[in-house]
Design brief:
This is Serine aminopeptidase S33 domain-containing protein. The protein contains six helices and six strands; from the N terminus they run E-E-H-E-H-E-H-E-H-H-E-H. By secondary structure, it is α/β, with parallel strands linked by helices. Strands 1-3-2-4-5-6 form a six-stranded mixed β-sheet, sandwiched between helices. Strand 4, helix 3 and strand 5 form a beta-alpha-beta unit. Helix 2 packs across helix 3. The chain is globular and about 45 Å long. The two termini are 29 Å apart. The relative contact order is 0.14.
């Protein structure tokens, strides 16, 4: 889903969290586009909403790659004018893509996870079976990073943000 704003300089590429899909985001996207003066693109992961395929970590990486390529090819977006926005699970594909885009405008991490298992268990290190190993990727992001998190979040503990922040090497 793409929302065009004639006054936009930036394009926001939105990755939703686990318990969401595009069907419930259209009005939010239109409102955000108007208030922030940005173009906004959102997409569903494989197996979410009306999308075909099966949900998997690998497929979420392929999904965001396809969405980003669509922004460049079909809408003429330039890397330096793209802001990646990812919420919770969406921080995984977002960070993965950001490590490969060296001229990216910025990345916004909303309630980012350290890794999949660390949402549920207070693990101190990354294991081979982890999914969304964000804590190992965030230090390889070269653009400005904004982390935001509500203190009443009962899914992702705010303490994970401090670990992300400590691993960032670029501008925060």
């Amino acid at each position: 889903m793409y929302v065009h704003n004639a006054n936009a300089r930036l394009t926001l590429l939105h990755s939703h969290g686990n318990a969401a899909d595009l069907g419930e985001r259209y009005e939010l996207f239109v409102e955000l586009s108007a208030h922030l003066h940005v173009n906004l693109m959102g997409y569903d992961y494989a197996g979410y909403g009306q999308s075909t395929g099966k949900p998997s970590e690998y497929n979420t990486y392929a999904d965001i790659e396809a969405a980003y390529e669509c922004l460049e090819r079909d809408y003429g977006a330039k890397q330096e004018n793209v802001v990646l926005y990812g919420q919770s699970e969406g921080s995984g594909p977002r960070l993965d893509l950001a490590t490969r885009l060296l001229q990216l405008g910025a990345i916004v991490l909303h309630s980012p996870i350290l890794s999949g298992p660390r949402v549920m268990y207070p693990m101190k290190r990354t294991y081979w079976f982890d999914i969304y190993k964000n804590i190992g990727k965030i230090g390889h992001v070269s653009c400005t990073v904004l982390i935001m998190h509500g203190t009443n979040d009962d899914v992702v503990d705010c303490s994970q943000d401090k670990q992300h922040w400590g691993a960032i090497k670029g501008e925060v």
